[in-house]
Every structure is written in C-alpha cells, then in structure tokens.
Amino acid sequence: MDRDGGHAVEQRRRSDSVDLPLVLSQLDATDPETRLDAVRRVRDGIDDEPSAYTPTVPKLRELLAEPGFELREAVAYSLAELAVEAPSDVAPSADAIVAAAVDDERTPATRELLRSLAAVAEERPTAVAEHVPAIVDVTRARDGDVRGIRTLAHVARARPEALEPALPLLTETVAPEPDDGAVSALSALGRLGRSEADLSSLAFVDHAVDLADCDDPKLRRNAVGCLADVAHRRPEAVEPVCRRIRPALESDDPETRANAAVTFGRVAAAEPSVVEPVRSRLFALLEDDHPYVRASACTALGHGNVTEARERLSTLATGDPESTVRDRAAWACGKLS
C-alpha cells in the first residue's frame, strides 16, 4: 500500500499539468505554428495520460482533413492512442479517419489511422462497417497491413455480410504463405462463411485446411474454427476435406480438439457417414478433461448415428458435472433412440 498517497498525488499532478482549454484554443488557432505546437503538446503528453486529451478528438479530426498538414503522423498517432483509450469518443470520426487513409495510403500516418479504426471497430464495429470497401483498398495498398485485417475481423463480429468486398483480400491473407493477419483473417472468414452472404468463392476453405496442421497453435486453432463456422451453413463445402482434419481431434490444444469435433458434427448433420472414420476418436473425447470438447463430441456422435455411444452418452446426460455436457448428451441420446 502507498501510505503517503504517492500514486494518487502523481496522477493529480499530471492531470493538473494538462491545460486543456489552452490546448484546445491552440488547436483552433489560425496561426499555423501555434497549431503545430499544440499538436506536439498532445503527442508528447498523450502517452502518459490519454484520457486527459479525449476532448481534443474533434480538433484533431479537423487537422487530419487539412491537405498537407505538417504533423499529420502526430495527429494520426494521437487519434490512435485516444481510440484505444476511448473508442466511443473516436467512433464519430471514423468517416474522417477513413477519408484521410484513402487520401494517402502508403504513409506512416495511415498505419496509425488503421490502428485507430481497429480500436474503434473492436468496441463499435457498426461504426466502421460501411467503410469496408475503402479499408480493403487501403489494406491491400499497404501489402495486407495487419491493422486493416484486424479491423475487418472486428466488423465481422457484428456485420459479417458487410465483408463480402473483403473476401479476396482475406483469402489472400490465409493463402499458402499466410500473412501476419492470418489469425484475424481466419476469424473473419469463418463468420463470413456462416453468414447469409452470397460468396463468390470458397477457395479459403482449402487454405484453412492447409493451416489446420501448421506449427503455429493460434493459426491451427483458428483454421479449424473457420472450418467449423463454414460447416454451420455450408457443410457440403467442408465434407470433402474432413479427412484432412482428423489429426486435429488429437491436438494438444483443447480448443482445437473442440473445433474439430464441432466441424465433424456440423457436417454430419447433413452427411452422417463423415463420422464413421473418426467414431472411435470421438468416443474417446467423451472422457476429455475439457467440457467443451466433451459436449462437442456428444453432438458429433449424435449427428453421426453412432449407436454404440448411447450407453456412455446416457451416463453423461445424468452424471457429467457440466450442464452443457449433460444437455448435449441428452440430446444425442434422443437422436440415437
């Protein structure tokens, strides 16, 4: 415990040192040097106390719109930091941020603008959804900038259908040599795949399968999760590749095991025979330490009409400590009766 209140005193001193009315008036000044000094002050102080500078967002947005403003990168950095601190306060500036990024796609300032959009989209995805085509263009111009891919992935959580224009870019991101944004791209593609969007291509399914046994655990997990999502609405697209994801049922990572079981279950809902080659492994997963894995195995066995699992499923339906597992096991028993 800080007995003399040192931390609180220091916080108060820093807050008192921010002369916000002065900063706001300088940002609004007609003299260019005064505005530049104000931007430098915000840029220098924002790392220590970003919340104190939240009221500067509208002024920074105006400066961002000025063609050739000398400290555009400092303005963009400050907006990105404020978006991380207070995304709802920066969300109304999304239009201006996107417009500035489109105007000058390749500059370091645009990197920070994409970071702003990613932070806003994480909290307020609908504020960015209408700008997907522009974000795709900027991200592509920046060689698949991971910040742009993350922004698209956040939008996919609330408006997956809005990502239709992003399908080619996201597919390229998870291609045989995946980019840095592949983990986020797989998440976005999965949500797009299970949406009602009219997809022009499902080429990404093959790429996801290729990544289902890669060395990177996050890529593996999201690749199998992507396939599970696609199988929710388009099981026929995943059924031909199920044999290639059988090893995922034995992964060291429980989420990957669960995702694989979900994939088999969703495909089996349309084609029960897909479970036949992995029925013994799914049966073994009923003993898994992780509830989500057990529950997913129950569903797959039920859809796969694995009647010899009925007795074990009946036991789980009444005796498993997790309610989700009990519910899934009971459903599977009913399916198999």
Automatic annotation (TrEMBL):
Gene3D superfamilies: Leucine-rich Repeat Variant
Record-given protein name: Uncharacterized protein
A Pfam family recorded for this sequence: HEAT_2
Superkingdom in the source lineage: Archaea
InterPro entries: ARM-like, ARM-type_fold
